[in-house]
């Protein structure tokens, strides 16, 4: 009898989820029907949360110098009708924006950063003065503008008007914003606690300070429904949905509320990742001493991080080998990627897409593991991308199924069909399975590069006369 009872929820959940997806969206961008779990927990916020008592001093000068980039011209291409991103059925609206198959100039603002996420349909841009502006889909208030109306043009976020913003991250329906005092603000969907404000209020419409008291934060990252922040001392803190172990707290947070109803223990405040492990071939687990984490990247449901010894650790959802451990198992705690643990294979930076990860080694070789396209072969362990051998790679932007790389003075992109113009090749060839140069952008100096679910944003230097001439050849997108 008990076995029968246990099976029931699986069947039920599957059916309900399916019906919702078919009618509305691709399963990858589906808004989960977990509305049953949104009961408010009786949680008390830490005293002094967001109060004026907090002494907010700026991050160290040297650090800010490395983080603050010069400003330039914003370029956009791909799918810009935000409400249709990732949806199967396109709802006609009075004004439809076609996909931009060629790079387009966007806004006259001088932009320092442009940020989106591999499963995001919204964007954050930071102007030269450090002001935070947002645009894109806004179903959960992820733009932080105190409403849920989609914006097509960058709009200033009033709550952060007097703050100097130095970083941001976009999840599927939530946003984290980092200021120069190492403080993090969050807004958007909070049904899984991914805004880290200490409760499960379903929508947070204005940027709210997260429930965190610790060393100042220097980097923020978002997965689909979870978030990761890195403090100045090298500690990683995670919060949000624990479903696949992507929080790295050695649990997937599942429990049965009733005999048939499965719920999750959402982490609604940042919690530090304390254990890092390595597994030997026979499955023996031993802890790894990690003094500090220096960089990390979040995919849809997984995370890869690098420590100060250039070792890479990955955890979360393991499907398609995106964790690089040569097996598709979910990892509940950060596990050392053995492949990079050899002399000369140290990792310089990591970049995670939806179902894959990219790692740039010390020698400038780009490795890919996981699967970029929807079908076909998956890389179960890191493999170098041969076509990029010899290029000096500066920026890497992983999208949902597409990848953009800036190497030397060229922009290289690839991604299997279906694409929406996010590769910038034009309307004749929309997709490419092998890395290919984006001719329209060659010779431009890229300052910042990011991809969303099906669009690309980049900031390029427009100081030199050559750059200005080149930019004049591009069209302008004015929503």
UniProtKB/TrEMBL annotation:
Residue ranges occupied by any RCC1-like domain in the UniProt entry: 76-458
Biased composition (Basic residues): 1-18
Matching Pfam families: WD40_RLD
Gene3D superfamilies on file: Regulator of chromosome condensation 1/beta-lactamase-inhibitor protein II
Keyword terms, alphabetized: Repeat
UniProt cross-references to InterPro entries, sorted A to Z: RCC1-like_dom, RCC1/BLIP-II, RCC2, Reg_chr_condens
Annotated spans, Disordered: 1-43
Annotated RCC repeat ranges: 130-181, 182-233, 234-309, 310-363, 409-462
Protein name in the entry: RCC1-like domain-containing protein
